[in-house]
Every structure is written in C-alpha cells, then in structure tokens.
C-alpha cells in the first residue's frame, strides 16, 4: 500500500476517532464540577490590580496621549 493511501485511511478512521475522543475529553474537563472556581478567577484576572474605577479625567488623559 502506498504512503498516501495508508495516511488517508488512517486519517479517515483512527485519527477521526482520536480527535472526537479528545473533543469529548476537553468538554468534560471544562464543565467538570470543580472547575468553576478556576474559571471565575481567570475571568476576573485582568481586574486584580485595580484599586478604583477609572475617572472621566483619567479616560480623557489617555485618549489625548494617543
């Protein structure tokens, strides 16, 4: 059997099965019960060092510097 035919057969069968199982595994990993705390922390990570909300004068100053 030539290489292209072998690779095409492998991709159509076993690799497709592997990718499907990988997808199902990732879905279970993301939606598992213990991951809520990690996802909540990750979603608020960019606000971690904010002490106060931005004032209007701060926003205008940054827009002027552009």
Task: Please give a structural write-up.
This protein is 68% helix and 0% strand. By secondary structure, the chain is an all-alpha fold. The longest helix is centred in the first third of the chain and has 28 residues, at 3-30. The chain has a domain at 1-42. The mean pLDDT is 80. The protein is elongated.
List keywords for this structure.
mainly alpha; 3 helices; single chain
Radius of gyration: 24 Å
Count of runs of 4 or more consecutive helical residues: 3
As a percent range, the share of helical residues equals 55-70%
What is the typical, i.e. mean, pLDDT? 80
| H/E element order | HHH
Q: Name the poorly predicted regions.
A: none
Give the structural class: mainly alpha
Q: Describe the sheet with the most strands.
A: none
From the N-terminal CA to the C-terminal CA, the straight-line distance is: 63 Å
Name the beta content range: under 5%
**Shape descriptor:** elongated
Secondary structure tally: strands: 0
Topology of this protein?
Elements: H1 3-30, H2 36-43, H3 56-64
Short recap of the structure:
68% of the residues lie in helices and 0% in strands.
């Amino acid at each position: 059997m030539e290489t292209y035919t072998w690779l095409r057969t492998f991709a159509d069968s076993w690799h497709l099965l592997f990718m499907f199982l990988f997808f199902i595994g990732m879905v279970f990993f993301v939606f598992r019960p213990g991951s809520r705390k990690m996802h909540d922390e990750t979603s608020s990570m960019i606000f971690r060092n904010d002490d106060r909300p931005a004032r209007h004068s701060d926003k205008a100053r940054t827009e002027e510097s552009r």
